Amino acid sequence: MFSKNQKFRQLLTAICLLMLATPLSADQVTYRVLVAGEDTGHLIVDRSERQFFIDFDYKQNGRGPTFTESLELDERGFPVNWKIVGTTTFGSPVEEYFQANDDVARWRDASGPGDANYKSDPDFYVNQNGSSYANALLVRALLQNPDGKIPVYPSGEASVVKRWTRRVESGGVKADVTAYQILGLDTDPRLVFFDEEGEYFGTASPRAAIVRQGFEAIEQQLRGLAEALSTDRFVDIQAEVAHQFDRPVRIRNVRIFDPERQSLTTQRDVVIYGERIASVQPAGSTVTAGEVVIDGEGGALVSGMYEMHGHLGQDNALLNIAAGVTSVRDMGNQNAVLEDLMERINTGLLAGPRITRSCFIEGESPFSASSGETVATLEEALEMVRWCGSRDFHQIKLYNSMKPEWAETLVDEAHALGMRVAGHVPAFSTADAMIEVGFDEITHANQLMLGWVLAPEEDTRTLFRFTAMKRFQNLSIQDDAVQKTLEDLIALGIVHDPTIAIHEYGLTAIDGEVAPMARAVIDHLPTNEQRSLKQEMFGTESEQERADYIAAFEFIMAVLSEIHRRGGLLVPGTDLGGSFFYHRELELFQQLGMTPAEVLKRASWDMAEYLGQSEDLGSIAKGKYADFFLVEGDPTDQLDVIRQIRMVASNGVIYFPEEIYPHFGIKPFATSPPVTQID
């Protein structure tokens, strides 16, 4: 793990800022960072010949990255000297560098140091942290090669594809933009826009954009174009990996997980027709003509699992399916974006889980989140609750900047409209107060527990809601404040969505070491994904501070174990996108005192019941939706075999993860079962 010497970091930051304050030429370009249309920060590039000085800073939802970079390129456009200093989105300090001289390339990022022979094998260094401007430099370097490919440090190969050139125009502002995608570095391509002069114009996703200053009016169009590119990619993948049959499909020689008995049955055959389970038959039953037969080879068939804290996008929808997550409770999204995604999934254009929507309502403040709807008055908040009540939302979710004094009125209105209420605890309030006004569910372990350690004036709309958790190590479960909250939680049947995996990541990850949640999967992931999982989420200044965070996580686990022991309902969700991290969430549930079988039941049957969907989902039985997955081994004995998924049925469509993962640069975890068609 590299040094976090505070004086060194301050000195290097000062040097970079001095360089930025003294432009070497007039060639300075400013870009604006916009999230859901709101200007949240800047990217400033100051360039002179082959030297660049970069200032990147934006804040949204009380957090965001801050970086300064000094960068020098050689005559080919390859980095030879690069320093990146700053903090990540969640405040982890960064001191990254790359240097190529004396025929040797050396670098250090949060995952550790590296070196290579630069004279015989000069590659392009891909930064771990910093601004998106580096992607523009990489595209230029890639375009110099006839095949559009170059090897990169620390490892791997990048390639570039030109997608299109388009005229974009809005409100009298227009630009000719060319879109390139960088492949090979991450699970998803990196999108880079250039203008007609071949200069970096920006980048975009469906929810956010970085665009050259003066062109903010077209950022929504750029986001739409980015979403269309992403959609095209996933439509193509869906056409290749989705197996839809117009005949019965028999999955034979499988043992079915029975959530009521919490055990596997003897061997059975499961027959699906269309989107439903047609029958569950004894093993060896007669196969009728025209059937497609998938041989489970003695494996276990488990009902599809529920990710209960998702913020779903099309970039992670298919990866959740491959992980056996066939249902997601979305806890906050831009409503129009999510509705479009649901429509594409429902029509079969894209693969994705069934989605249960939460209506995300945020108060207006300098720290407001942009994921949902922001309201400035109680009347606006009530109007939003009513709007959601008319549009099939399962619940409302209140957020950090909501005024605490509005909560009781909003809860009453939501309940009157048949919706539940979940949420963060509004700033300057406590979980106890929200339980008292009628919250049905408290979201995140830190939100449940911060009231035990905060003073009334302390503001949780910033990173403080994370960093204050290190105070947990001074608590005891026997403390009066802790006991009161737990007693009320249990007595009133309040559900808790702890998102354990993201707390484990934030509180225990250490630079240079594989984060605990990633140890079982990291070798299967692309290089850059591996680097990100060797970096702290919350920065620390000392070993003692990290020890305090680790002790805080141990306290969180002790509290959650006590809630489980007393019969409270904990729901499994990650706030990390689900997929592999959902598997880790379930392992952490096992550490709370559950057996593997109890965990599987919680992830499937219990969540279907909680959401009122058990008539159609949650177990494998005749007439229910064909949502289940096949694994090797016995997951009621060894829970970790749920990573070794051989096949998934989602709404009757068959997927083989072995076919899906290569599209994301991921090494598969298991082989596909044999498939035959009976004439």
Shape, per Cα inertia axes: globular
Largest beta-sheet characterization: 15 strands, mixed
Task: Tell me the strand percentage band.
Answer: 25-35%
Q: Determine the N-to-C terminus distance.
A: 61 Å
Rg from alpha-carbon coordinates = 26 Å
Instruction: Determine the structural class based on helices, strands and strand pairing.
Output: alpha/beta
How many helices? The count is: 17
The largest sheet has its strands arranged as 8-7-6-5-4-3-2-1-15-14-13-12-11-10-9
Mean pLDDT equals 93
Low-confidence stretches: 1-26
Q: What share of residues is helical?
A: 25-40%
Count of strand segments: 32
3D structure, described in words:
- The protein is of the alpha/beta class and 679 residues long.
- It has a domain at 6-240.
- Helices cover 28% and strands 30% of the residues.
- The chain contains 17 helices and 32 strands.
- The chain has a 15-stranded mixed beta sheet, sandwiched between helices.
Task: Please outline the helices and strands.
Elements lengths: L5 H16 L6 E8 L2 E11 L2 E8 L7 E8 L5 E9 L5 E9 L2 E6 L2 E6 L6 E2 L7 H12 L4 E5 L3 E14 L2 E11 L6 E5 L5 E5 L3 E5 L6 H23 L7 E10 L4 E11 L2 E7 L9 E4 L4 E4 L1 E6 L3 H9 L2 E6 L4 H12 L7 E10 L9 E3 L2 H12 L5 E4 L8 H10 L3 E4 L7 H7 L3 E3 L1 H5 L14 H4 L12 H12 L3 E3 L2 H9 L18 H6 L10 H23 L14 H12 L4 H15 L17 E4 L13 E6 L2 E3 L1 H4 L14 E3 L2
Parallel strand pairs: 9-10, 16-19, 16-20, 21-22, 22-23, 23-24, 23-25, 25-26, 26-27, 27-28
Antiparallel strand pairs: 1-2, 1-15, 2-3, 3-4, 4-5, 5-6, 6-7, 7-8, 10-11, 11-12, 12-13, 13-14, 14-15, 16-17, 17-18, 19-32, 20-29, 29-30, 30-31
